[in-house]
Amino acid sequence: MPLRVALLVNPSSGAGRARSLVAPVVERLRAGGAEVEVLVGQDAADTAGLARRAVGGHVDVLAALGGDGLVNLAVQAAVGSDVALAVVPGGTGNDGARMLGLRDPLHAVDVLLGGARRRLDVGRVGDRVFLNVLSSGFDSRVTERANALRWPRGTSRYPLAMLAELGVFRAVPYELEIDGAPLHLRAMLVAVGNGPAYGGGMRVCPGADPADGLLDVTVLTPLPTWRFLRLFPSVYRGAHVGRPEVLTLRARSVRLSAPGMTAYADGEPLGPLPVVVQVVPAALTVLVP
């Protein structure tokens, strides 16, 4: 019986790059013997509905061709089901694809056709789930600025937005609960990672393993601007961990509260703090090399 694939597409991902990938991806899938249905929504809500109906139908794989926002929508639909999630990177950051070990779109198609199934954890906040990182504080403000920029395109928006936000941001008083244990401190940012990275390769929680049943927490405590600028490049390598300004923790449940802060999950706005983040072990089936 042929592999039944629902290909969820966001044509605008990657400044239109995803649109140009649809034909070669579909051709390669069909050449590999798969039955493919292409799904394109009118907006985010319509796209989410298409994904849910596909998972509730008779498909074997829900494939997301786009960026991390589309992958996040697909995760909402596939979590808790027997339908495997496949990611075909076509966006700007592509942190979900990178976490799954996918090099490029055609490699991702080959993995879809012949890869291994693996069960991964997800992070959960209420009825929403995420695959990689939930963030709040300085980085969520940077995400808001980056999303509002029309130029430049691509991952270079994030460093530019960061420099703009550095001029106005001040450390925030956080109240955290780490598996029920209270922790009160001032912080620049707090990131909760089911996976390691966000923002196009920033490995903010470099030790996070999405199959260990735990969440990794990274806290950046207050520091002068010049020290932040020296620290920032090391985040792409995950080399910031171990620095005196960086606190790392692990937990199954994390509560975050801070005045005026918004939580972002997989780069998408989740809502204002406080939030309670919990790990849901082995809740999602994915296709990996």
From TrEMBL:
Membrane-crossing residue ranges in chain numbering: none
GO MF, any single term: metal ion binding
A biological-process GO annotation: phospholipid biosynthetic process
GO CC terms, sorted: plasma membrane
Superkingdom of source: Bacteria
Keyword Kinase: yes
Pfam families named among the record's database cross-references: DAGK_cat, YegS_C
Entry keyword annotation includes Coiled coil: no
The entry's keywords: ATP-binding, Kinase, Lipid biosynthesis, Lipid metabolism, Magnesium, Metal-binding, Nucleotide-binding, Phospholipid biosynthesis, Phospholipid metabolism, Transferase
Signal peptide: none
Family in the record: Belongs to the diacylglycerol/lipid kinase family.
Name of the molecule in the record: Diacylglycerol kinase-related protein
Organism annotation: uncultured Frankineae bacterium
Source taxonomy: Bacteria, Bacillati, Actinomycetota, Actinomycetes, Frankiales
